[in-house]
Amino acid sequence: MRCEKGKVYLVGAGPGDPQLLTVKALRLMETADVVVYDRLVSAEVLQLVATSVARIYVGKACGDHTLNQREIDRVLIDQARSGRGVVRLKGGDPFIFGRGGEEALALAAAGIDFEVVPGITAAQACAAYAGIPLTHRGLAHGIQFVSGHRKNNDRLRIDPATLSDVGQTLVIYMGLETLPQVVAQVLAAGREAQTPAAIIEHGTLARQRMFVTTLGRLSAEAKLRAVEAPALIVIGKVVSLADSLDWFLPTIEQGRQCYG
Ligand code: SAH
Known about the structure:
This protein has 260 residues and is of the alpha/beta class. The protein contains ten helices and twelve strands. The protein folds into two domains: 7-117, 3-Layer(aba) Sandwich (Cobalt-precorrin-4 Transmethylase, domain 1), CATH 3.40.1010.10; 122-258, Methyltransferase, Cobalt-precorrin-4 Transmethylase, Domain 2 (2-Layer Sandwich). A five-stranded parallel beta sheet has the order 3-2-6-1-7, sandwiched between helices. The chain has a five-stranded mixed beta sheet with strand order 8-9-12-10-11, with helices on both faces. Helix 3 packs across helix 4 (100-110). It is globular and about 55 Å long.
């Protein structure tokens, strides 16, 4: 698999651990002319981009957008039009809270060839490394991926119907900043304050930290532990399994302390 000239590959870089890249992603990163990446792509993954490949950072820090989405689309289109093989590297999966859909639409509208290479999304990877099966017979029959991001500081409003089914594990992306609002809405939707909940920071990396607590204590725990982005929140009975299943070394030190 080689990166073709004049084409854009929307590639999922996975959650951080470079071993979780797909073979296809790696091959493209080795043969691209240019890699366009943002903040969520880990330094460990970037190290695998060949030194001969040009890099363009279009990262977004919270509230400090280096380039806006239209400008990013423009970069991709211009690079492809100038005949380069372009890898657009995105954290996790490009089509899960990654704005990959918008970029693909812009490419399609501009008549640029593109391919989408899925990546392991944070929910799958962080839960696996935290020892939390997202579904488990008798505990969870489904999963909801929910965004805690709000536009332009608007109030966060998640449809209660999304949050109320206790048989569904809730995975909250981008929920750190709005955590008190997220928790209030999950409680208001009828989930018990005692529901097990976990925060996974820098999931899958050697610096991963994981805190197991309850829904009612989530916000206080995040504050107490000075949790930083990126962090993923998992809410539901399955979180209780982490007590027995947290196999990933760094979590052993940190996990469990606050459970119950
Ligand atoms: N496309 C990405 C998600 C982008 S939204 C994916 O599929 O994973 C960014 C959010 O993803 C972060 O706010 C955080 O909630 C979550 N996230 C991504 N990588 C993470 C990691 N290594 N550890 C914890 N959370 C992560």
